[in-house]
Amino acid sequence: MPPRPVIGRGVLYTWPHTLRHICVLLDEVAYMGIVIAISGGVLQAIGALIALQERDVTPKLLIARGGSALAAGMSACGWRADELARLARTLEHNRLALLAQLLPALNDPATELSPRELALLALGERLGEALGRELPPVPAASDDPLEALLWELTRGVELRDVRMPLAMPVRAYKRVAEQYKPEPEPRLLTSGNDARYAVTLATALRCAAFTPELAGAPTVGGALLTAWPDARGEMAAWRRFGGDAPLISIGPTDGLGYCQVGPNANGFAISIPRPGRRDKLRERMDAGYNAVRKHIGEVLSFC
User: Domains along the chain?
Assistant: First the structure.
């Protein structure tokens, strides 16, 4: 008999999913002695996480930056590989309906990208780079529809109540003389006992997974928080919370600092090829999945 469906605030759940969610909150997981840092777009990250789940890889700390934070947050809530794949299909089929209204760049006459390309960029790519400039952040609306969507996907769980160790670097902008100035070092949004901010997982993902071009940035701790742009975020989280655990970095390598392992890190990097603009959902997921599967033996050798 198939799992009995449960409808909650417009999102379809199943009893097994609810039970897994409870188990994650109760910390009933045996964590391995490795740290995994994942970066890049959400679809590649979903493929990578599916490959890790197939071999029951549960790191002592999962660091996620940019669009990959969305996939990591779902995994931290107990989503299985098949549920992550279903999320990817939902994003593929509904990305314009969900995201186009949130992209001010669509109305920018200097934008040469199509709405579809912009929506793809919104799912983890750096839109400011695609536009050739960084757009200044503005505060998100109090009724932010993107955060409401994330709240439904995560069932409103508090970040501190997610017992799977999760760290997401973010960039903080403080208001100075009528302008928002970025802080030079990343802040870290973390789960469990290390949580610094009393926010929902949805708010944390809204900050960590999206750049400020997406309808502004949420205000947390007196600052606007948005996605951290480079690998210094992963390294800061690993140095602070990773201890002596090996660091395995998964993400795109493009000469801009992505997917780097520090010189003193005991670990290695798994490179995911950067997607082309016309790559479809399956191609993006497969890129992450195949990259991790190729090196899964090395990953397990550190566990």
Answer: 5-86+137-301 (3.40.1090)
Top pLDDT among 153 and 190 is at: 190
pLDDT band per the 50, 70, 90 thresholds, residue 278: low
What are the backbone angles phi and psi of residue 37, rounded to the nearest 5°? -115, 125
The two tokens of residue 64 are: 């996620």
Proportion of the chain above pLDDT 70, given as a percent = 67
Q: Which residues contact 260 (CB under 8 A, 6 or more apart)?
A: 231, 234, 235, 249, 269
**Whose CA is closest to 167, among 241, 67, 227, 223?**
241
- pLDDT reported for residue 166: 95
Count of residues in the chain: 303
- Cα separation of 133 and 22, whole Å? 43
Amino acid at 249: S
pTM, 2 dp: 0.78
Nearest partner of 190 among 170, 176, 209, judged by Cα: 170
Q: Read off the amino acid at residue 24.
A: V
Give SS3 for 184: coil
114's tokens = 């199509």
Using alpha carbons, list the distances in angstroms from residue 231 to 170, 186, 265: 11, 10, 14
Helix residue ranges per DSSP H, the chain: 15-25, 42-54, 68-76, 81-99, 115-122, 127-130, 145-154, 201-209, 232-241, 281-294, 296-301
| Contact by Cβ (8 Å): 61, 52 | no
